[in-house]
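Researcher: Final request for today, and then I'll write up notes for the group meeting. The sequence and the SMILES for pyridoxal-5'-phosphate follow.
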Amino acid sequence: MMEQDRLAANLEQVRRRIAHAAERAGRDPAAVKIVAVTKGVPRATVQLAYNLGLRAFGENRVQEALQKFAVDPLPAEAELHLIGYLQTNKVRHAVKLFAMIQSVDRIPLIQELERRAERQGRRIPVLVQVNVARETQKHGCDPLQAAEIVRAVLEAPHLELRGLMTIAPLSSCETEIRRVFAALRTLRDELQDRFSYPLPELSMGMTNDFELAVEEGATMVRIGRALFGA
Ligand SMILES: *Cc1c(COP(=O)(O)O)cnc(C)c1O
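Model: Predicted protein-pyridoxal-5'-phosphate complex:
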């Protein structure tokens, strides 16, 4: 099969699975955005995905995204999301390249993002990443710190807080994964109330667990392998 045909079939399958999961939860499938995760995927394949109608793309490393898109930018309708750990010394590039930064998890990063966004005269949409399961090897703030991080983002005039992001534990049972997604949603609800500020986005769910995430309220699923293969 041609690469484009295989990609089209994968996308069709992912869309169908999202639709079924949304239906089970009584949700509108149109309220779930696919963020196609293109780490390790060549620029030409990203273009095929764009041609098939995908508009949101996720990269987890600033350096790789720069190499792929700085000289050969995506069309203006496409949006690039940073979904991986952001080093403070990469913020300058990140603020230029990305439409949204999903991995905001600490105060010094917020300060540097604010400084660079102001300097570039833009207000950048962000998500606060929460390490819901408190895994030691994962980035993201502790759930108990989330309010402090959210407050800092809300006080930064050049950052636009849109919601929360999490990564579920890798190898564990369905009940445990579902509990993590439900906990992120509950935390979002609490933070919305506490700050009287709308947090519409929940970025959760990847190839292994996106249906559970959709059932638990995801508005963005970050899908790599189910679209592009391993
Ligand atoms: C790689 C990655 C994904 C996509 O993972 P798949 O299992 O390939 O769908 C999603 N989110 C983050 C943060 C990632 O690094």
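Model: The chain has a mean pLDDT of 97. The beta strands are 33-37, 56-59, 79-82, 100-104, 124-129, 159-165, 201-203, 220-223.
Researcher: Thanks, that's everything.
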